[in-house]
Structure formats: C-alpha cells, structure tokens
UniProtKB/TrEMBL annotation:
Record keywords, A-Z: Electron transport, Heme, Iron, Metal-binding, Signal, Transport
Post-translational modification: Binds 1 heme group per subunit.
The protein's name in its UniProt record: Cytochrome C
Gene Ontology CC entries for this record: periplasmic space
Amino acid sequence: MKRSGIATAYTFAACLASPALAQMSVEDQIETRQAAFQFAAWNMGKIKAQVVDGSVAYNPEQMQAAANAVAAVANSGLGSLFGPGTGMDQADGTKLKPAFFDEPDKAREIAIRFAQEASKLQAVARAGDADALAQQFRAVGQSCKACHDRYRAK
C-alpha cells in the first residue's frame, strides 16, 4: 500500500472513534453524511458531463476543482457519521442497512477504497488527461457502487 493509502486507512480508523460523534445527534449524523455524499455526487456529475458524456466542454480547472471536492469528502472522516443508531432499523430518513454495523471490517475496507480512488481522481485531474480522468471516474464510481450495493436499501 502506498504511503497515502496507509495514511487514509489510519485517518479513517481514527475517525471511527472520533469524539465528535458524541457531540452529534443521530439525526445530525445522518443529515451531515447525506449532504457530504450529495456534494460528492454533484461534483462527480460535473466530471461525468465533461469527460464521460461530453455534454459540457472540457475545462481542466473545473475538473481539478471537482476532483478536489470529491477527494475532500472521501478523506474527511465520514466514518464518524455512521454512529450507533444511524441505520434504517433505528432511525428515519436513511437507507443505511443494519448489515453495515454487522460488518465493520468490510465497511471499513469499502470506505478506504473510496478514499483511495478519490485521491487518485484528484491526482489524475491535476495531470489534465481527460481520458485518464474518465477512467479514474469509473473507478471511483465502482467504489461508490460497492457500498451502495452492500449497504444501501433500494
């Protein structure tokens, strides 16, 4: 694992035990994580429009900004927003399956992969190669899909 991957893994693990969790209500945790994921999705949409669909003219600066935003969300310590009681079996307004809490190692593995792929997206965007960015966009999308398929109710 590269140095940044190790740092990401340690950061994510540390955030799971974050004292900030104790300061947020279940509702605030759910609302905050949903807002973070919506922001990441909005930025992924900008990348998709420019390098996958081609529906918007390619702008390297916009792509770098969007990739920076996705990477920031992925590496922000989102794990601390998945506290006890934030699954759909215990709280309203979420589609988080209870299985998430039954498989902490698998959930952590998926989250780390998302952070790693998002960090690669940031690096690829910085290089300015639209084709490479489209390829890495797909890798980030697959990391999102892995979590959705396993832990998000339809």
